Amino acid sequence: MVDLIPIRKEFKYEELRREDGPNGRRYVYGEQRLPSVTHILSSTGDKQALKDWENRVGTEEADRIKTEASLVGTHMHSVIERMVAMRDLPRPTNWAMTKGYEMGYRLINTFFKNIDAIHGSEVPLYYPDKYAGTADMVAVYRGQLAIIDFKQSNKVKRRGWIDSYFQQLAAYALAHDMVHGTRIDYGVVLMACRDDANTMLEFTTTGRDFAQHQEKWLRRVSAYYDATPQVAPQQAAAPQQAAAAALREALPPVPGE
């Protein structure tokens, strides 16, 4: 199915070098070492629920579960990335690879029929002087240019539980808009459930809802730079706030307001 989807080279995506250290992931662009989107989300998020879970299951079991989930997720993304690039997959040699491959193929078989064109897979994106990251995919999904994120989950998730996923999409959209002159107003989360092969989830955000997630992301960028003396928080957030405000101005009013 993937080879039936047009690959467009409309945007020139620059490679960014990644550095992982004790203070989180950084992306190197020129002389800039930009914090990753996921690092900012982690640094500014509420970790109490995670701590409660770790206390409940124990540190050793929590580490095992997180490591396993990370490996499965890596192999799941590898399926999609290699299929788009028309590259062969290595033969699976362990359970994590087998499960990751199976979930990746499920995502392709379930959702790729909705993709009209692919602009990039594993796309490096940066907002100058502020942050950077790697979007799973930039594509035309159901007729709209979108940032797409592929997720795995041990259980079925509800929309109200995944605000941080939407903020991640909003961050990539703002970066894409700034560097590539787009106006992306569509974010898509496509999720495979590990323990239920029949459950595949699609969550989308657009319009006012997407603008609200952009605002939440901007507040987290400000909070991050509040704790980082090298950049004043107002300086860090102001351009993005202007971008979000411009987007809100273009949106139709919400019925009933």
List keywords for this structure.
single chain, 257 residues, alpha+beta, 45% helix, 25% strand, disordered C terminus
Quick recap of the structure?
This protein has a domain at 2-11 and 23-45 and 115-249. It has seven helices and eight strands; from the N terminus they run E-E-E-H-H-H-H-E-E-E-H-E-E-H-H. The protein has helices at residues 37-44, 48-57, 59-84, 95-111, 163-180, 207-226, 233-249; strands spanning 17-21, 24-29, 32-35, 115-127, 131-141, 144-153, 186-193, 200-206.
Task: Give an overview in words.
This protein is an alpha+beta fold and 257 residues long. It has a domain of 168 residues. The strands form two sheets. It has a five-stranded mixed beta sheet, sandwiched between helices. A three-stranded antiparallel beta sheet has the order 1-2-3. β6, α5 and β7 form a beta-alpha-beta unit. The C terminus is likely disordered.
